[in-house]
Amino acid sequence: MALDLNDPDLEFADLVYAYQSWVLAVLNDEKLNPEGDKLNNEDIAEDAMNALRFLPSEVTSAVETTLARAYEVDAEELADLLFPED
Asked: What is the pTM of this model?
């Protein structure tokens, strides 16, 4: 999708979608299909990191919590998957 942060038509929902897509890709790659084709790539991760700069922590937390519950992953485990260096 390659977010263009200078695009006047960029909406809040686009930022949420970019972040949510990355979280889903990480979950898929690490938990659901560790031996299969990887969904997470540089473009998805870059868009998510750009979106993260503009999204309130309440929104990112809601995305992470919702997806962790849906995929039966502990919130701490998801945080370690998303941000392993922290």
From this structure: 0.89
